Amino acid sequence: MKRTYGLTIGLGLVLMMAACGEDNANTDDTEPNENNEVTSNNENTENNNENINENNGNSLNNNENNNNEDETEENTENNNEHNSEENQHNDDNNDTNEADADMIDDVSLFFIDDQALNLYRVPTGETVEMSAEGAEETFEMWLEGPESEELSPIAHEDTELDYVEFHDNTAHASFTETILDSNVGASTESMLVDQIALMMEQFDMDETLILIEGEDAGDFLGHMNLSEPVEAGDPDDYDVFEE
Question: Which intervals carry biased composition (Acidic residues) (predicted)?
């Protein structure tokens, strides 16, 4: 009976010890799990922080880009306004220069009398620009001939002007070859050349090179060599024609 009692007590102790050991094991298993959960939470927090930082960085970049775009638009507007003002200023200057361009008031033509004895200055009442274009206008009026029947043209009636160019103080006046058909003698040829040079003197051209179709006029009408420019006289030395 005592032996049986002792076995019973011993078996009870063994069971108690086994139960304690299982509790400890469960406790040990629980602690790592709790630690793992804490570690995982920390990692998630760090990842979230990184994502927040990245998002903040993107927001900053977007703000910077927006600011740069605003600055670019503002600079473009400023440049456009500046260019517009500068263009307007240039236009105003051009208008002023055109208004201030030198003009010749009452430009004069030159014709001989119907007896081919004298050369006269004939004011036209016309205003032309002091330029090659103005000189061409003057020659066109001259080639139309005088209005008065007491004056005569020298150049052939079919003569036309090719062009006028200014080179320093020398005018280049080119005519069609029909001018060579002009019926002149030595004296009238000289007066024809003088007429051309005198009209160009009004444009501050000291001398005039007469050309035929843009080429050297050579002996011209047979009495003068025009390979070199002709020096102009003073228009004021000639009497104004009065009917």
Answer: 25-34, 67-76
236 in any annotated domain: no
| Contact (Cβ atoms closer than 8 angstroms) between residue 200 and residue 178 | no
Q: Max alpha carbon distance in the chain (Å)?
A: 185
pTM for the model stands at 0.60
Q: What string of DSSP letters covers 65-84?
A: HHHHHHHHHHHHHHHHHHHH
| 130 occurs within a structural domain | yes
3-state helix, strand, coil in the chain (%, to 5): 55, 15, 30
Give dist(CA 213, CA 172) in Å, integer: 11
CB 128 within 8 A of CB 140: no
pLDDT in tens, 16-54: 655 555 444 444 444 444 444 444 444 544 555 455 445
Q: Which helix (H) or strand (E) holds 5?
A: helix 2-100
Domain that holds residue 134: 103-231
The alpha carbon of residue 201 and the mean position of all alpha carbons in its chain are separated, in whole angstroms, by 35
What is the number of domains present in the chain?
Answer: 1
* CA-CA-CA-CA torsion sign (83, 88, 90, 91): positive
Q: Are 169 and 136 in contact (CB under 8 A)?
A: no
Q: Read off the tokens for 198.
A: 């005198």
| pLDDT tens string 119-165 | 999 999 999 999 999 999 999 999 999 999 999 999 999 999 999 99
Contact 236/226 with Cβ under 8 angstroms? no
Give the tokens for residue 189. 């040829």
